[in-house]
Amino acid sequence: MGLYNPLDWYWRVNGDQTKVYGSLRGDYAATADATYQAWLAAGNLPTTIESEASLGAVLAPFYPTVTRPVPVAIIDGYQQSQSDDVFQHKVVKLLFVLVNRIQVLEGKAPFTVAQARAYVKGLM
Questions:
Q1: CA-to-CA distance for 100 and 103, rounded, in angstroms?
Q2: Does residue 28 sit in helix, strand or coil?
């Protein structure tokens, strides 16, 4: 078996036996696909993963070298993981507080954490 390479790997998502997600192409391929069959012939086996969102989270740390996913649910997990990572930094937390102070000074409602997270996710 080859070494795990998240930039060129395949996953079976949700137990689907008819297709696999390929990180090199950023999309699904039929299990009969020639490139996938060659990858298998090289001694590799696909990883099983429970959901598209989970797969997006697996791929997110390899941005920008991994091909950006095409399927919407994988992108959602990808972006969610990236935005969660951003919100772990103290500077972002400080900026969140400062932006809300400005909002209040301007007579506007402060942002909720959920609104701020959704905004950052949209930037990913």
A1: 5
A2: strand
Q: Which letter, b or e, does each residue of 49-60 get, where b requires 16 or more Cβ atoms within 10 Å of its Cβ?
A: beebbbbbbbbb
The alpha carbon of residue 4 and the mean position of all alpha carbons in its chain are separated, in whole angstroms, by 18
Token pair recorded at residue 48: 């099983």
Between the two ends of the chain, the Cα-to-Cα distance in Å is 34
Tens digit of each residue's pLDDT (9 = 90 or more) over 9-53: 999 999 999 999 999 999 999 999 999 999 999 999 999 999 999
Gap between the Cα atoms of 120 and 114, Å rounded: 10
- SS3 state of residue 73: helix
